[in-house]
Write a structure and sequence with these properties.
- The chain is 28% helix and 25% strand.
- By secondary structure, the protein is α/β, with parallel strands linked by helices.
- The chain folds into two domains: 154 residues, Beta Barrel (Lyase, Ornithine Decarboxylase, Chain A, domain 1), CATH 2.40.37; 173 residues, Alanine racemase (TIM Barrel, Alpha-Beta Barrel), CATH 3.20.20.10.
- The strands form three sheets. Strands 4, 14, 15, 16, 17, 18, 19, 20 and 21 form a nine-stranded mixed beta sheet that branches. It has an eight-stranded parallel beta barrel with strand order 5-6-7-8-9-11-12-13, surrounded by five helices.
- The chain is globular and about 70 Å long.
């Protein structure tokens, strides 16, 4: 019998907790808005994926862009995870969090020479190359260092992942990767270069996928490509299947890790390749909540607004993608239900956390929790409207620690000067 899913945010006596700590207790100590993460939920999500792929050589390279807090990354690294990075800053964070450089893959369409050099000096596992121009830069930088760079091309299979267009990356209109029809020629060029080692093939078609079919369709094309490349003399021993496994925000029922693993095994399992996975959202999204406090309420003939101290600069997904994230009272629900918009203080009409929600009656001072905020929450936050970024807290059992302090007003101007001679 399988273990029950880890319950990161239980309710006890009507009050929302993070593991064994009342949310209200943390908010009283840290202030709001604040991000709260469950260490147990992070570990459970990682371990479920690791267990699903336990029967074959694999590396889980956590996509650090989803949540780059050092404590979050360290929690996963301690479980054996590697990291998928897309910038020198993310590489710096991964290494600072204790990641093994030999488990780091470097993705992204715009790698600068200094970023390539830093990755080579660190000794990363592999570059996921996204253009032939980039390949030549990697070869040049590797040559200047007297090393050989391990590479895979990210191939674009033109498969529709049926997700939001902003997070769809596998169509022929995408900026990512090279068209799969050009791959054989690109690999031939790579083989002729003096300072790269062709290791594998990479394919990542998008994020928040809730059907297994796009994965299977893309991997079938990758399988055919690997067979063709091997016939041409390329020693392909790594297949990076990307990430993109969806999570439940509302009523979605994404594939389980076991179903995902079965699709990978069914498509490329007989190729005797190490599998690289790049999960991000599926590890962290439902391990985090965003907590905000009700400031005011006001109504018009058409709307009832609940104004909170969290805003689009803190949690951008609803404004950027029109995304749904469940919101609930931190304390016991009050009687009565009304339709509300939950909006923030930022001077933009697009500053909202939820629209047209049927919600229990709230009062000034109440705490609200936005679910599924562990991915692309703090990572996408900004200082827009001169707002210091929120604190972050990691909880394990009945203990919690502030793992990023709330920014101060001085932090807002750090590094700025007023030149007296201009």
């Amino acid at each position: 019998m399988s273990n029950p899913p880890f319950e990161a945010f239980p309710r006890r006596d009507g009050n929302l907790h993070v593991e064994d700590v009342p949310v209200a207790e943390i908010a009283a100590q840290t202030g709001t808005p604040v991000y709260l993460y469950s260490a147990g939920a992070l570990e459970a999500a990682h371990d479920a994926l690791a267990a699903a792929f336990a029967g074959r050589p694999h590396v889980i390279c956590y996509a650090i862009k989803a949540n780059m807090n050092l404590a979050v990354v360290s929690t996963l690294v301690k479980r054996g995870a590697g990291v998928d990075v897309t910038s020198r800053g993310e590489l710096f964070r991964a290494l600072r969090a204790g990641a093994d450089a030999s488990k780091i893959v470097y993705s992204g369409v715009g790698k600068r020479d200094d970023e390539i050099q830093a990755a080579l000096e660190a000794g990363i596992k592999m570059f996921n190359v996204e253009s032939r121009g980039e390949l030549r830069h990697i070869d040049s930088v590797a040559g200047s260092l007297g090393v050989r760079a391990p590479v895979a091309f990210r191939v674009n299979p033109d498969v529709d992942p049926k997700t939001h267009p902003y997070i769809s990356t596998g169509l022929k209109t995408s900026k990512f990767g090279i068209p799969i029809g050009e791959a054989v020629e690109a690999y031939a060029e790579a083989k002729a270069l003096s300072h790269v080692d062709v290791r594998g093939v990479d394919c990542h078609i998008g994020s928040q996928l809730v059907s297994i079919d796009p994965f299977a369709d893309a991997l079938a094309l990758v399988r055919n490509l690997v067979v063709e490349l091997r016939a041409a003399g390329h020693a392909i021993d790594v297949i990076d299947v990307g990430g993109g496994l969806g999570v439940t925000y509302a009523e979605e029922v994404p594939p389980s890790p076991a179903e995902y693993a079965a699709a990978v095994e069914g498509s490329v399992g007989d190729l005797d390749c190490e599998i690289v996975l790049e999960p991000g959202r599926s590890i962290t999204a439902n391990a985090g909540i965003f907590v905000t406090q009700v400031l005011y309420q006001k109504g018009t003939d058409d709307k009832h607004f609940v104004i909170v101290d969290g805003a689009m600069n803190d949690l951008l997904r609803p404004a950027l993608y029109g995304s749904y994230q469940r919101v609930e009272p931190v304390g016991p629900a009050r009687g009565g239900v009304q339709k509300i918009d939950i909006v923030g203080p930022v001077c933009e009409s697009g500053d909202f956390l939820a629209k047209d929600r049927s919600f229990p009656r709230v009062e000034e001072g109440d705490l609200l929790a936005v679910r599924s905020a562990g991915a692309y929450g703090f990572a996408m936050s900004s200082n827009y409207n001169g707002r210091p970024r929120a604190a972050e807290v990691l909880v394990r059992g009945d203990q919690y620690r502030v793992v990023r302090e709330r920014e101060s007003l001085e932090d807002l101007i750090r590094g700025e000067t007023i030149p007296e001679d201009l």
